[in-house]
Amino acid sequence: MNIQSLLKQAQKMQKELEAIEKELETREYAATVNRGDVNVLCNGAMQIQSLTIKEELIQEGDKEKIQDLVTTAVNAVLRKAVSDKNEVMKKATGGVKLPGGF
């Protein structure tokens, strides 16, 4: 196999991985904590799309509890998104770790 062929294969794989990355960014992930008191939705680009807090929880006025629940929900939804991305990329690369954020 010559260098030219290897470069073409690498470029092809890079384009495929970029397409996978774009598709992943369109996915949505959700997390709910404390029986629905806090709900978070994020996309595959790790951007929070929405955050809802039940009115009853707000009325309780327990600021620390709300902060803890929001933190827990955000961390949970981001873990889901990262886990899904890692799984998809692992399948796409056959488990080979690639440099450059892929």
From TrEMBL:
UniProt superkingdom: Bacteria
InterPro entries named among the record's database cross-references: YbaB-like_sf (IPR036894), YbaB/EbfC (IPR004401)
Keyword Cytoplasm: yes
Coiled coil: 3-30
Keyword Cytoplasm: yes
Entry keyword set: Coiled coil, Cytoplasm, DNA-binding
Gene3D superfamilies: Nucleoid-associated protein YbaB-like domain (3.30.1310.10)
SUPFAM superfamilies: YbaB-like
A Pfam family reported for this protein in Swiss-Prot or TrEMBL: YbaB_DNA_bd
Location relative to the cell: Cytoplasm, Nucleoid
Annotated family: Belongs to the YbaB/EbfC family.
Record's function text: Binds to DNA and alters its conformation. May be involved in regulation of gene expression, nucleoid organization and DNA protection.
HAMAP family according to UniProt: DNA_YbaB_EbfC
PANTHER family (alphabetical): NUCLEOID-ASSOCIATED PROTEIN YBAB
Binding partners and assembly: Homodimer.
Protein name: Nucleoid-associated protein NE663_08375
Organism this protein belongs to: Massilicoli timonensis
